[in-house]
Amino acid sequence: MENTTKNFKNEQGGGKKDSNNNYKKEELPEGYLSGGYFKIADGEKVLRPEYIVKYPKKIAVGLSGISSKNKRSQVRKYYQYILRIQGLLRRKNNNFPSVEAELDRLLPFVKYAESRGTVSPLFRNFIEKNIMIIHNGEDLNAFVKHFEAVVAYLPKEKN
To answer: Please, what's the largest Cα pairwise distance for the chain?
Structure first.
């Protein structure tokens, strides 16, 4: 079995350390989502840039480094589900409560996939943490952009 930890402080940054002071790939980066998706810049609420570059790169490294789990196609399936919810939200005139149950359905789906071994605990944790901080359409749209960046950084699957 492949070693799932390595010292990648510069590559991954953050996250918990094992007994050998190495960062664990199966952990989300330290400080991830602690300040939410947004910051105020020039009096305007904007998406934090770290959710487009910094965190997605780190998460993609972790997801791609865990044995055969988290195939790009599997991760993309969940991304497509989130896109469908975003489309439903638009059709419902941004009435977030009308789509909240659909968003919450993702939690048991990802837990079931983890129990079958098709996704890792890291991916389940990624989905859970993000779903828990989505409280409105603006948060959902931020998560879509963030998740899109994670998918973009995943390596292409080998045939």
So the answer is: 52
Residue 70 tokens read as 């988290």
Alpha-carbon 38 to chain mean position: 16
For residue 17, the 8-state DSSP code is: B
Amino acid at 8: F
Q: Mapping DSSP to helix (H, G, I), strand (E, B) and coil, where does residue 44 land?
A: strand
Whether the CB-CB separation of 46 and 52 falls below 8 Å is answered with no
Nearest to 131 by CA among 99, 87, 92, 88: 99
On whether the CB atoms of residues 59 and 12 are closer than 8 A, the answer is no
Average pLDDT of the chain? 84
Task: Report the C-alpha gap between 106 and 128 in whole angstroms.
Answer: 9
Q: What is the pLDDT of residues 15-52, one digit of tens each?
A: 444 444 334 556 899 999 999 999 999 999 999 999 99
Enter the pTM of the model. Answer: 0.81
For residue 89, the one-letter residue type is L
Return the SS3 of 65: coil
